Amino acid sequence: MNNFSITFFVFVMCISFSGKSQSFNTPESITFDEATDSYYVSNIGNGEILKIDKTGIKTSFVSGYTSFLGVKLHNGVIYSAEDNKSGDDFVRGFDVSTGKLVFSLRIPNTKQLNDIEFDNAGDLYISDREGHTIFKVSIDHKSYEILNNTINTPNGLYFDAQKNRLLVCNTIDKSEVYEIDLESKKTTLIVKTNYPHLDGITMDKSGLIYLTSWSIDWKNSILLKYDSKEFTEIATNSNGMADIEYNQKTNSIDVVQLYDNSVLHFNLSNKK
């Protein structure tokens, strides 16, 4: 896909939350709790999940683990992918009110569990990029199965409730976006791009898709919008834009930045 236009949102807020000695350590993923207007950010560098309250104060929600990647709030539980560096990664779940571990599932022989998503039935999906696999996890039965192992390097995941499909970023030099029909399990290529290393993926209330892309050398990153016809480059920087989430309450795209240890909020209500 060669056609794209470049535009920037007028209102962009970069937040480097400060609070008592707590700081980001290579943040990878973000999720939002509408009930408390709080963000939860996973950190690769120190195995910690930080909570950022509505005033911007950061506190340690969970710590003492090896390395957290994808993070998602579902039914009062913060779920995250723990890469424990041993080849047997875990899906962990922590009560959002107490931080207590309430769910733990080991998935053996994995390379690095990455992004997390939920469907309307409450099933969890998690990508293993280097393991070339997407797993489906039953929270109720504490079990897992392989959903897909034909997408080469699955990374970012997004559940499109309207179409009951899982959108998947295939992170290669000319990245692709696939959809998996969750009823038939059929996998279909949506678009092949000229952008390398697609990472995060989300969708706004209008059905527009947003993605992050890394340069071939992993030094720069781009936030993209895709309207089913063309890509629009929203922002480019060297701060390491990684996982993203659409925040329906604020109508913004929330983006973690690995290299800059910060979070960006792109307010869609103020775009031009």
From TrEMBL:
Database matches in InterPro entries: 6-blade_b-propeller_TolB-like, SGL
One Pfam family per UniProt: SGL
Domain SMP-30/Gluconolactonase/LRE-like region: 27-215
Name the UniProt record assigns to this protein: SMP-30/Gluconolactonase/LRE-like region domain-containing protein
Organism field: Aquimarina atlantica
